[in-house]
Each structure stands twice: as structure tokens, then as C-alpha cells.
Amino acid sequence: MNEKLFRAIDDRRDELVALTADLIRFPTVNPPGEAYTPCAEFIANRLRKRRFETQLIRGQDTPGDSDRYPRTNVVARFDGRGHGPTVHFNSHIDVVEAGEGWTVDPYGGIVKDGRVYGRGACDMKGGLAASIIAAEVFMDVYPDFPGAIEISGTVDEESGGFGGVAYLASKGFFSKPRVDHVIIPEPLNKDRICLGHRGVWWAEIETKGRIAHGSMPFLGDSAIRHMGAVLHAFEEELFPALDRKQTQMPVVPEGARRSTMNINSIHGGQTEDFFPGLPSPNVADTCRTVIDRRFLLEESIDQVKGEVTSILDRLKRERPKFDYSIRDLMEVQPTMTERDAPVVTAVAEGIREIFGKEPDYVISPGTYDQKHVARIGHLHDCIAYGPGILDLAHQPDEWVGIDDMVESAKVMAIGLDVLLRGALRG
């Protein structure tokens, strides 16, 4: 047991709590991307005092980037005193909107009953704070360590990560030889290692129609009714077929160990901005829906898309006047890091030391920024590990447990010890 590391982290418990609360107080809401720059500057200023070299990097011309809402990321690096690998802790600083139902100020960083409350407490400012404390303590206890430590706070993960990790990966920030191991402190429970995620395909389907007077719909062609036929076919054919597909990936929760599809939105006919008047009587000449298809390691992206387009093509043959278009919005392949990868082995060692048990190895039902590390950076020694309970993410009264953050920081510090100093316990 590394008592020096553990005592040092215990001694900085209050600092860990204060740092988490400070991060929550930046309302980094995405969309639109508020308070990114001041939050990134806050992280940079803190790490600069610990002799990290820091950079603020804007995701120029990425979705949502503007002078009003710049996609500002922070990357900090500390080089040790000898040659060795680089361990990178990556956390996203953006949070979803607060929504309704809160009993505390969502951006107050309230501390009570052994918890820190606020939007982003769990997902994932508590994990960011834990990684910072873990790195700083490791540097204090082992000042002569070889290699390097990087910490980043990146944006837009909640909307795909294109202005954050994807942009940085395209610039070489998540590739060898700069970086060897990546830990993303997403909230997947303190005794679990997340090896990757299911795949995702987002697409927009549009059905076409012909406008006409609503009192004489037979003179037009309703795109909404055509979309109704699409949804009916999905219900009768596609959803049952997806439900039968199982995976060997250890996805949590168990319901996600099969293929799924969600209808994200439907928009048809005229807009609803006629208030306080009344809508005009028109037959809808267009209807759009966005689908969110999550798929398994055992499926190919061509197969996934083909299951949808085959239904649409059949309707075009069989249904009078039916016509459609389909547009890809995003596609990401499933990813799963090998269980014997160095970063997995290192964090597993920490979990054994802190909790006295073997870690659970899981796969996330949804994607996170590991997708960009793998597909753009071509770096596959990457996992998600951090404090927090995934089910609390995006909920009212979101919180992270203080004990959980302290224990996760200890696991991260042991991970650094194994990866940088080779301190396997055996």
C-alpha cells in the first residue's frame, strides 16, 4: 500500500471539495457553450502555479464556435526528470442545461451531507478535480518521476466533442509520441473501468409531400402521413429485430447489451411560432425525424444503415407518392480497449489496492470522447475511469460523493505510479 500517496490525498480532501465546487460555479452550459473561456482560464491558472506548461486552444470553425461562444480548451503538461511515457487525464468542462426540478442552486457548488451538488458535479467536474489532485499529489510525493503528465479540460463532449477532443486530436494532441496513455474521468462508478462504448449512427430522415389547403387534403400529399408509415414500419419490423441482437461487450446497464434506436425528434408541416394567432390550414409538404441508432461490436455500419434504408426503399416501391431523403449526421464505430492494455492494468491495480476487489470491466451505452482518441488520434490505450454514479448525470440535484472523489483520486495516483514508475505490486 502506498501510504504516502494516500495520506497526501486525504490531507487535501477539503481542497478537492473546494476545487469541485469552484468548477461547478462556472455555468459551462452546452448548447450554446457558455463560460468555456473563464473555466479554461481558471484551470490553466491553477496548473500554471504548479509549473505545468499550459495552452488555451480554440476549436476554430468547429460546430457552434463563434466569437461570442468560442470553443476554448485548456491543455497542461508537466515533464518529469527523465525519459518515459506520458499519461493524459482528459475531462470535458461542458455541462447540459440545468432543467427543472432542482432543490439547490445548480451552479452554487453546494456542499452538504458528504456530497457536492450542482450541474456537472457528477458529469464530470468531480472527476476533473480528482484527476488534478491525484496528479499534483503524485508530483509532490515522487518529484523525480520519469515521463510526463498532461491534464486537459475540453469542450462540447455533450454535443459530440467536435470542438474539443476531436479538434485537439486532429492537431496531434492525442497521438504518439506525444501521449501514451489516456484516462477520461467520466462517472462510471469508482470500482469500474470503462473499456469503451457502443457505436452510434445519427441520421435525419425527411419524407416529402405536396402542400394543399387543409380542407381539401386530397389535393395535396401529407409528408406527415408518410412519416407515420415509416414509424409504423420501424415499430413492426425494425425495433423487434434490434431487440433480438445481443452483444458479448460488457455494456451497462444490461438493457443496453442489445441494439437500440431512439427517435430523437419529429418536425412536420409549418412552424409553431404562430402564437397568439392560429395556424393556417395547410397539408404538410415536408416532415423530418432524427434517429439515434446505437450498435454493437458485432455489427457493421453498412448493416446498420441498410436496415433503415431497406425499409424506406420498400415503402417507396409500395406506397403511392412516397419519397424520402436521408442525411448522415454522425457515425462512430464501437470501441473497446483490451483488458491487458497498460492503462487498464494500472488502474485495475489501484482499484485492487483501494477497494480490495477486482474491478468490474464495463462498456458505456453511449459514446464519449474516447471515440476521437481512437479514430483520429489512433491511440487505443484509453479508458474511462472516475468518481460518480452514471445514473445521476443530467438529473436534477446532480451530485458527486466526496468519499468517492477521494478514493478515485487515490486510484488515479496509483495508476500514475504504475505507468510512470513501473510500480506494479504483483
From TrEMBL:
Cofactors that this protein relies on: Co(2+); Zn(2+)
Peptidase M20 dimerisation domain segment(s): 196-318
Keyword Electron transport attached: no
Keywords carried by this UniProt record: Cobalt, Hydrolase, Metal-binding, Zinc
InterPro entries for this protein: ArgE/DapE (IPR010182), Bact_exopeptidase_dim_dom (IPR036264), Peptidase_M20 (IPR002933), Peptidase_M20_dimer (IPR011650), Peptidase_M20A (IPR050072)
Family from the record: Belongs to the peptidase M20A family.
PANTHER family recorded: ACETYLORNITHINE DEACETYLASE, ARGE_DAPE-RELATED DEACYLASE
Record-linked NCBIfam families: DapE-ArgE, PRK13013.1
Protein name (database record): Acetylornithine deacetylase/succinyl-diaminopimelate desuccinylase family protein
Organism (species): Neoaquamicrobium sediminum
Lineage of the species this protein comes from: Bacteria, Pseudomonadati, Pseudomonadota, Alphaproteobacteria, Hyphomicrobiales
